[in-house]
Queue: 2 jobs
Job 1
Amino acid sequence: MQTSQGPVFWPQQQGCAQRSCTGLMFWNWVANEILLESWKPGVHLQAFADDFVFVISEPTGAILKSTAHEALAVFKG
């Protein structure tokens, strides 16, 4: 992803088998649980297909970094 400070990369560490017989049911269960989470103001979680993305708005880079770490900690559960 391109940012004002240059590109940012997030290595993929795990995935899910596509077209598995329980894949959709498991995905819906996981997605529903995390999408029902109450996030602090300025933190939005979006899901598309089998991906999640956080959209976070904060006034400074330091606060953004802290908020992102907090959101990821909740997301990882």
Job 2
Amino acid sequence: MGSSESTKKLTVERSEEEGSPGIVKVSERVVRRLRGQIDLPLQGDEEIGQDDINNIWHDLQQERARLKHQQEHLQEFMQNAYDEGRQVEAKRLKENRGTLGDKDAQGMENQWRKTLEEKDAESRTKEASFWNKLAC
């Protein structure tokens, strides 16, 4: 039944006076749905005039303008919040640079000193090994 993966079920109810019990009549819309095709648009009894279409078009244009204005407002609001956050963070870093910076700088200096001493000791060991090989 078409390329649709859903199962479709057709229930037939008819009386004896409708005709032969072996023949079932279905509308074109039902056939299209059973085959998994796009359904035909409904044809209502209500007539839609050009004035109605123009009014709907006008309403849609107003809604589009309102949504665009709202989007611009939200973009501006988000940009202001982002800029304010950056300024607050920059101010906080500037104020804390003296206290946090000294602690961090001292810790980094100790780490570099330790690494330098380890590399220096390693270099001396290699140098001593090199002199021993030359002496032999």
